Amino acid sequence: MTTNRAITFTAPGQVELREERLPAPAPGQALVQTITSAISPGSELLIFRGQFPPDLAVDESIPALSGQFAFPLKYGYSTVGRVITLGEDVPDTWLGQVVFAFHPHESHFLAAPAELIPIPPGFTAEEALFLPNMETAVTFLLDGQPLIGEQVAVFGQGIVGLLTTALLSRLPLASLVTLDKYAMRRETSLRIGAAASLDPASPDALERLEAHLQEDRPYRGADLVYELSGAPAALDQAIAAAGYHGRVVIGSWYGSKPAALHLGGRFHRDRIRLIGSQVSTIAPPLRGRWDTARRLETAWEMIRAVEPVQLITHHFPIEDAAQVYDLLDRQPDRAIQVVFTY
User: Which of 119, 138, 149, 203 is most buried, judging by how many CB atoms fall within 10 Å of its CB?
Assistant: First the structure.
């Protein structure tokens, strides 16, 4: 038996570190001891605040996140650990391997080898923590299909928004402008590749965005807009920023927060297209040549290229979980990527 310490969301605004006993691995299972795990603030703060839809499965594609949204709940999906014990029928080659898992924040866990991703040579544990969010950013580019010479705007520069900006900046775009209400994120956005980064709460935000996009061009608006802020009100701004036949990729998960949209104006006449993007699946038109293995391989390559460890702003021991989520909830302007140590 192994004593496990698990971060558990127990009620809106409440987090506990709970202990539980794990049995020895069953046949076909491995016991993993966690080295580090990363918080994805957008989705995890929805859990922390209780803003999840209760009629929705947590994640049907991840075995460790099976079940419905309900308190108490263990959550999280970016964990790196070392395999320390094997059950029967698990090859000895797994013992001692450092692996990534889409798994909640806890000190130990049992998993089938199929649920573990060996970390490729040359990657550190902290670099591997960015795999799920980088895979999400790769998905956003696959779904948005940015073209050479396009004008692109990205609303939201949290960790997923910044990774998306970093990937977009590697393309021959005409312009790349980002928007976020926090100064630290805007400064980081400029450092990671944006040509300009604006405060969407500014009264003239859309006018300034249009000025950056248009310059001397005869056409208005962005060809492609990403809404990655997690704020439903930003979707209206994103639609307003799109030009004729523009594409708006909605990568945010709003949870139970409603999005009130004004669709009676330019949206209708300008044939603006809304594209829902989510990493659990690959869009049907791409499945002839893309599968999850190819997307993961691309995500690893982009981690090597972007070096996202530079986005880590805080390290906290797992014992400080309540303090960490309170920080992210009350002072989101102070942190970008927060990781737990064990």
Answer: 138
Question: pTM of the entire structure?
Answer: 0.94
**Rounded Cα distance, 197 and 180, in Å:** 7
User: Which pair of tokens denotes residue 110?
Assistant: 């049992």
- Pick the closest to residue 206 from 266, 158, 132, 146 (CA basis): 266
With contact defined as beta carbons under 8 Å apart, do 341 and 315 qualify? yes
Q: How far apart are CA 325 and CA 235, in angstroms?
A: 26
CATH of 2-129+307-341, one of 3.10.560.10, 2.30.40.10, 3.40.50.1820, 3.90.180.10: 3.90.180.10
User: pLDDT tens digits for the chain (342 residues)?
Assistant: 899 999 999 999 999 999 999 999 999 999 999 999 999 998 999 999 999 877 665 665 667 666 778 899 999 999 999 999 999 999 999 999 999 999 999 999 999 999 999 999 999 999 999 999 999 999 999 999 999 999 999 999 999 999 999 999 999 999 999 999 999 999 999 999 999 999 999 999 999 999 988 665 667 899 999 999 999 999 999 999 999 999 999 999 888 888 888 888 888 889 999 999 999 999 999 999 999 999 999 999 999 999 999 999 999 999 999 999 999 999 999 999 999 999
Closest CA to 116 of 3, 39, 30, 33: 30
Q: What is the largest CA-CA distance in the chain?
A: 69
